[in-house]
Amino acid sequence: MLKEDREALMCDLAQTYRIYDMRAFPPRTIAIFANGLGDESRIKMKLSKSKVSLTKMILAAILDDLNVLIWTRAKEGTPKPRSLVEALSGVSPEPGHIDRLTPEEFEKRRYEIIGEEGDHG
User: Fold this and answer.
1) Helix axes 27-35, 2-17, angle to 10 degrees
2) pLDDT digits (tens, 9 = 90+) for 27-55
């Protein structure tokens, strides 16, 4: 952790344990404290290459789902809301991702996936 980002570790230790001088403690003690830092600490976020904490990502996913739910009830032609999860993570939806479909498009897509004709009424 020290090699990765000494300053981030120092900030985390000061914020979490009120340790302002790492040299005042044995290295083993500092290692134990560093290991006990939360997943949202600066150093652990940096080591995991995470830009956003898991808590914030879960909240963003909830907001995205709520926005899509509201969007499905909106007037036809209303643009789909932008995904906060995509913006935070930089990851686009998987290929084949389907947005809102008409009933006919849904039945066609369903047939393509499961290969059996349903009762089209």
Assistant:
1) 80
2) 999 999 999 999 899 999 999 888 888 89
d(CA 10, CA 2): 9
Q: Write the CB contacts of 19 (distance below 8 Å, at least 6 apart in sequence).
A: 13, 25, 30, 33
Provide the whole-model pTM: 0.57
The DSSP secondary structure of 59-108, one letter per residue, reads HHHHHHHHHHHHHHTSPTTPPPPPPHHHHHH--PPPTT------HHHHHH
The Cα angle at residue 47 between residues 58 and 50, in degrees rounded to 5: 25
* pLDDT, tens only, 67-94: 999 998 988 888 888 989 888 887 766 6
Measured over all CA atoms, what is the biggest interatomic distance in the chain, rounded to whole angstroms? 78
List phi, psi (to 5°) of 37: -65, 150
**Which of 101, 34, 90, 51 is CA-nearest to residue 109?**
101
Q: Coil, strand, or helix at residue 18?
A: coil
What span, in angstroms and rounded, lies between the C-alpha atoms of 39 and 43?
Answer: 9
